[in-house]
Amino acid sequence: MSSHDTLLIVDFGSQVTQLIARRLRELNVYCEIHPYQNVTDAVLAEIAPKAVIFSGGPDSVTRAGSPRPPAKVYELGVPILGICYGQQVMMQDLGGRVEGGKISGGGGTAEFGRAYVTPAGPLPLLDGWFSDGDEQVWMSHGDHVAALAPGFEVYGTSPNAPYAITADPARNFYAVQFHPEVHHTPRGAKLYENFVRMAGFAGDWTMAGYREQAIAAIRAQVGDKRVICGLSGGVDSSVAAILIHEAIGDQLTCVFVDHGLLRKNEAEEVVAMFRDNYNIPLIAADESELFLGELDGQSDPETKRKIIGRLFIDVFQKYAGEIEGAEFLAQGTLYPDVIESVSFSGGPSVTIKSHHNVGGLPEKMGLKLVEPLRELFKDEVRALGRELGLPQSFIGRHPFPGPGLAIRCPGEITRPKLEILREADAVFIDQIRKHGLYDEIWQAYAAILPVRTVGVMGDGRTYDYACALRAVTSVDGMTADYYPFSHDFLGETATRIINEVAGINRVTYDITSKPPGTIEWE
Ligand code: XMP
Where is the catalytic site (predicted)? Predict the structure, then answer.
């Protein structure tokens, strides 16, 4: 899509490869992660990287058939930085020797956790390091380098890693045993900064620049054809829509489907935001009768999800069919989704929940995809949203799942239950906002439980629903922890919900982390 310089990260399967990309994006350097097996000579030629980083990985280079980059990468004449397994790969490929540790059966010592590196010679990669003595780093390796490849020298040592920092400055090859990308290497970001400076990156990957490039690319891709975009009210689809609108104006039509499972006032707010601020052609479709009708009597979580997914496609197709000449479907796919779809292991993982989006639509409808956020991380999408003038209230919104309140109403869904749920949820979110906690929380919501419990209000007996409040912190939704509200906050919120929401007489707070729980109840 773009004309900026690219740093290629060859992924050997480390758990923290994405963090390398984060560190680089923070330096305004554009990078792409590619699993090692996809990095062929042709891919190298196409990407034409200005520098390359080899990630860590779980394998052992001492094992025959272990992951390697193509030999061509060493002939590109660009700087290479190898990290942990990446260091070992470089040494082995370039004529050094790696010895197995405990894990791969070699008997040497493995090293996991905090370590301190002592300098062993000046190196521009280490500018800004060692000013306060030894540097703390994070080690996580079973194998270790036993003999350096020709041309390499040692520039830093740690008690268990005599080759902690190695380099062949003449060829601009650098290889470290530790992980500079993780938080526990406090000055790791400085290493990346030095590396990209030495590689000659301009640090010009900004959202303003991205906006210009993305607009040009959308125009080139779409020409004079029409695009449709499903709006969910979330940040990703909103930013995608506004960006595309800026590129092609009224050739874009957005479709917002109200499936009757939205939060209080949500449909009105989303529609108003788009109509008032952007003047984007928008079809606001109230299909709540259809969805709630088909969900009637269903209580199995996967059945509910499948029904919603199927109806969503039907409805979207119906409205899209009314837009003459639509050839493209816009989606707010983000970079982490792209990386996951070419995951290192490549193996199918267990389906915990069938998340629904408009996947499957393009083939069915013969549409081509426009995905202008494919290169971005979530926080970059937010930055782009700001750049495009999206109101902060929209940019900072908590994610909301496609199936909506259906998965926050375990068991059977009824209209009265949804009404109660909307009110309880609104009070909870109001409390969070009033206490200034909204931006500290990844997601917060109320779920209505499929039980009624006995209570006493005034002098009377009540027999009403119980609700569960859920609030979690997370960086990507993959793992999460419950938010540690004060007891005062929880007490005040429970009292408000019971006083203000007819139909609820008991409030619980869910303190399950993910894993073992999931963020949504279904
Ligand atoms: P779980 O419940 O799997 O949720 O821990 C992780 C994140 O994904 C959201 N979620 C969904 N988003 N369609 C979506 O667009 C779905 O079907 C869906 N299910 C869960 C959830 O809100 C959380 O942010």
Answer: 84 (nucleophile), 179, 181
Atom of ligand 1 nearest to the CA of 480: 5
154 is in an annotated binding site: no
pLDDT band at 352 (very low <50, low <70, confident <90, very high): low
Residue among 207, 263, 272, 264 at smallest CA distance from 239 = 207
Which of 444, 427, 425, 522 minimizes the C-alpha distance to 483?
444
Q: Whose CA is nearest to atom 21 of ligand 1?
A: 401
What integer pLDDT is reported at residue 348 of this predicted model?
Answer: 36
- Which H helix or E strand runs over 210? helix 207-222
Q: Is the CB of 402 under 6 A from ligand 1?
A: yes
What pLDDT score does 394 carry? Answer: 87
Contact by Cβ (8 Å): 35, 63: no
Task: Ligand 1, residue 517: give the atom nearest the CA.
Answer: 5
Count CA atoms closer than 13 A to 490's CA, side-chain side: 16
Specify the CATH number of the domain 414-509: 3.30.300.10
Residue owning the nearest CA to atom 9 of ligand 1: 401
Handedness of CA 379, 381, 383, 389 (dihedral sign): negative
Q: Can you tell me the mean pLDDT for 325-330? A: 91
The answer on pLDDT for 431 being more than 70 is: yes
Q: Which residue out of 308, 519, 521 has the highest number of ligand 1 atoms within 8 Å of its CB and is therefore the one to mutate?
A: 519
The answer to whether 106 is a known ligand-binding residue is: no
Asked whether 357 lines ligand 1 (CB < 6 A), one says yes
Q: pTM for the whole thing?
A: 0.74
CA distance 248 to 218: 8
55 is in an annotated binding site: no
> Could you tell me whether strands 226-231 and 326-330 are parallel, antiparallel, or unpaired per DSSP bridges?
parallel
Atom of ligand 1 nearest to the CA of 234: 15
Q: Do domains 207-395 and 414-509 have the same CATH topology?
A: no
Ligand 1 within 6 A of 477 CB?
A: yes
The runs of H, that is alpha helices, within 279-414 are: 288-295, 301-321, 335-341, 361-365, 378-387, 392-395
Q: Could you confirm whether domain 6-199 is CATH 3.90.1150.10?
A: no
Nearest residue to 509 via CA among 439, 463, 449, 464? 449
CATH number of 207-395: 3.40.50.620
Q: Which residues pair with 174 in a beta bridge?
A: 81, 167
